[in-house]
Specification:
The complex is a heterodimer.
Chain A (H helix, E strand, L loop, with lengths): L12 H12 L4 H19 L2 H11 L1
Chain B lengths: L23 E8 L3 H12 L4 E4 L13 E3 H10 L2 H7 L1 E2 L2 E6 L2 E7 L11 E3 L2 H17 L4 E4 L3 E8 L2 E8 L2 E12 L6 H5 L5 E4 L3 E9 L7 E5 L8 E7 L3 E9 L4 H5 L1 H12 L5 E9 L2 E4 L4 E2 L2 E3 L5 E2 L7 H20 L9 H25 L4 H16 L52 H4 L4 E6 L14 E6 L7 H8 L5 E5 L5 E5 L4 H11 L3
Parallel strand pairs in B: 1-2, 1-11, 2-8, 5-14, 11-20, 22-23
Antiparallel strand pairs in B: 3-7, 4-7, 5-6, 9-10, 10-11, 12-18, 13-16, 13-17, 14-15, 15-16, 18-21, 19-20, 22-24, 24-25
Helix pairs in contact in B: 1-4, 1-8, 2-3, 8-9
Classes of the chains: A mainly alpha, B alpha+beta.
The structure holds flavin-adenine dinucleotide.
């Protein structure tokens, strides 16, 4: 089982944050929600490990 | 009339130029005696270059605008001769706390590593900084410095013609003309000079209004920067509390988008807001209240033939990050030695283009950082707020989310990008002192600091190098500074300039930015690097 990484791990947090919000620019609420959903699934696949993913879901609740 | 910002500092005095039939010609004219114009006048006067500084007012900046002055500004002010005054009067702070609603979610500590003379930041009212700059300039003038300050004199026309800039000046006693080889326009964010030259000022305009108040009170809040997102006393908005000298506190309260600015400014509306924040029984006095909206924008170029823009006239940022005055002082630091070398014939005129390249680069860095902070503080859409609040929520318990919390990314100097003015890097030396960097400070074992020992012009810093570098046949002047580092001797010099190498030579520009570095002494290579650093 692998632990969810909770130590700071961004190479550039500000760059990422801006990029993320720019992606939402001009979208309707439902389009934004759909973008977020796709993004979660993409990132979840990148993580892969079920234990880590479960920890993330539980933490976010 | 006892408030420092109500006093006339440089009243209008009739000048002999006004009674001549022809326009008097000057080497350099500076438009605007704000912090940036005053700093430029001092720097040029110290370099022996004659300047006339013109301001349409005769006082310091009204009330308080800038309060946070960064380490690099203090180091530049050391060079200008007022560093100790600023640090003695200012308040040092290291701790910043961020609250979300009622909870503290994040805390940062600016405590620098050992071996720096100046702290990361001090807080000091902008009017004190301006008074100290003005007094310093007056001292230089009284000692025979070639400077002339003209109060209540407004530049209302600029005309460039060949190698001359013509200025029309409006005074209480009518107008007159002067001309100059170079003009530095330091006339602030609304720069009339910029408008007279027909130049744009393009960027982001933020819609949220902020109430900025300076209050005098006896309070036992600590000397820390406190920033709130969505506090109970200002629901859905942000707030900031930061201490200044003499029991003055800066309060920023975000008001939102569509507000009646005139109404909000009235004491009967301001006081309840402040009481809600500071506590009902706190007794305070309002020193100054204003309502601002913020912009992040710049001119496309800072150099227009022989008119050079510096400070807020060239670029403007929101105050989160304290990058306004701090970057304006760095403009001056970058510009004045270059102008002096050009006036003295040590560098070609086109060398000034390096000012444009380097300071536009720095302005972009300041603009992007200030823009991101403002976006985080004033989310512009529902989804921005959603993510912002998620970050704040998570950051209370989890360190990983804290790098995303953005209540201001505080001013630090830029590493200027590689160009022909900088020599190729020797990458085995520490990255912090690579060409383009502002020279890091260090402490010698005898207790004195490196930056204080640098020359006013170029410096060659030789670490574990015996060879002596004689001055060049043609200017500029160069100071040779030789340092020994073995074992634990002069440790901060070793860490910041040597790493695991045994010797190094650094060429440091008059603005204390590193122009080149090598492992061994080579007279020819260094001579070439000096030429390159001057655009020759
Ligand atoms: C609320 C607030 C908080 C801030 N906090 C910080 C901070 O913490 N740290 C920081 O670094 N910066 C901060 N700033 C920014 C800082 O105040 C500015 O960057 C700084 O004042 C710019 O200096 P300047 O000399 O370029 O322009 P100014 O200070 O605007 O000076 C321009 C001068 O030009 C003169 N002038 C204008 N037109 C003419 C004319 N036609 N002829 C002659 N003279 C003329 C004016 O009278 C004035 O004296 C803050 C700003 C605000 C509003």
């Amino acid at each position: 089982m692998s632990d969810l990484n909770l130590t700071p791990n961004f190479t550039n947090a500000d760059d990422f944050y801006e990029y993320l919000l720019n992606a939402h620019e001009g979208l309707s609420k439902s389009d934004s929600d759909a973008l977020n959903a796709r993004l979660i699934i993409l990132l979840a696949n990148h993580i892969g490990d079920l234990d880590a993913l479960k920890q993330a879901v539980d933490l976010a609740k | 009339m006892n408030k420092i910002f109500e006093r006339s500092l440089y009243p209008y005095i009739r000048h002999p130029d006004q009674d001549k039939s022809e326009a008097t010609h000057h080497t350099i004219a500076i438009i605007g005696a704000g912090p940036v114009g005053l700093a430029a006048a001092i720097d040029l006067t110290l370099r022996g270059i004659p300047v006339v500084i013109i301001d349409d007012n005769d006082k310091v900046s009204f009330g308080s605008r800038a309060i946070c002055f960064a380490k690099r500004t203090l180091e530049i002010c050391d060079r200008l001769g007022i560093g100790d005054q600023l640090v003695d009067k200012g308040i040092q702070w290291n701790l910043g706390k961020v609250f979300f609603n009622q909870r503290k979610v994040y805390e940062f500590n600016l405590l620098a590593e050992e071996g720096h003379q100046r702290p990361a930041f001090i807080n000091l009212q902008q009017y004190y900084v301006e008074v100290y700059l003005f007094e310093r300039l007056t001292t230089l003038k009284n000692k025979g410095g070639p400077v002339d300050i003209r109060g209540k004199t407004r530049v209302n026309k600029i005309h460039q013609n060949g190698k001359k800039v013509h200025l029309s000046l409006q005074t209480p006693e009518g107008s007159y003309q002067i001309s100059a080889d170079w003009v530095i326009a330091c006339d602030g964010a609304n720069s009339p000079s910029r408008q007279m030259l027909g130049q744009d000022f393009i960027g982001r305009v933020f819609e949220d209004n902020f109430l900025i108040a300076d209050v005098t009170m006896e309070a036992d809040f600590p000397t820390e920067r406190w920033f709130w997102f969505d506090p109970p006393f200002n629901k859905g908005q942000s707030a900031l509390l930061h201490k200044q000298p003499e029991n003055v506190w800066r309060v920023d309260l975000q008001l939102g988008r569509d507000v009646d600015r005139e109404e909000e400014r009235k004491p009967e509306n301001v006081i309840p807001r402040l009481k809600a924040m500071l506590g009902e029984d706190i007794i305070f006095e309002l020193e100054w209240v204003s309502i601002y909206t913020f912009q992040c924008r710049r001119m496309e170029r800072f150099l227009h033939n022989r008119v050079i823009f510096a400070g807020d006239s060239a670029h403007q940022v929101s105050p989160f990050g304290a990058r306004g005055a701090n970057s304006g002082i760095q403009d001056v630091d970058n510009l004045c030695w270059k102008l002096a070398e050009i006036v003295n014939g040590n560098a070609p005129e086109f060398f000034l283009e390096s000012y444009n390249t380097e300071r536009v680069y720095a302005a972009d860095e300041n603009i992007i950082n200030s823009t991101r902070s403002t976006d985080f503080i004033t989310p512009k859409s529902d989804v921005s707020r959603l993510f912002r609040d998620a970050v704040l929520e998570l950051s209370a318990d989890h360190a990983f989310a804290r790098p995303l919390v953005n209540s201001g990314r505080l001013s630090v100097p830029s590493f200027y990008p590689a160009s022909t003015y900088f020599s190729y890097d020797v990458e085995v030396l520490p990255s912090i002192s690579r060409p383009g960097a502002a020279c890091p400070d260090a402490i010698f074992d005898n207790g004195s600091f490196l930056l204080k020992n640098l020359g006013f012009d170029f410096t060659i810093l030789a670490i574990n190098v015996e060879e002596f570098f004689k001055t060049l046949e043609t200017g500029p002047s160069i100071k040779f500074l030789s340092i020994k580092v073995t074992g634990n001797q002069n440790k901060s010099v070793k860490d910041r300039f040597l790493g695991d190498q045994s010797s190094a030579i650094y060429l440091i520009r008059p603005d204390q930015h590193i122009a080149g570095r090598w492992l061994k002494f080579d007279r020819q290579v260094i001579t070439k690097a000096i030429d390159a650093a001057l655009g020759r």
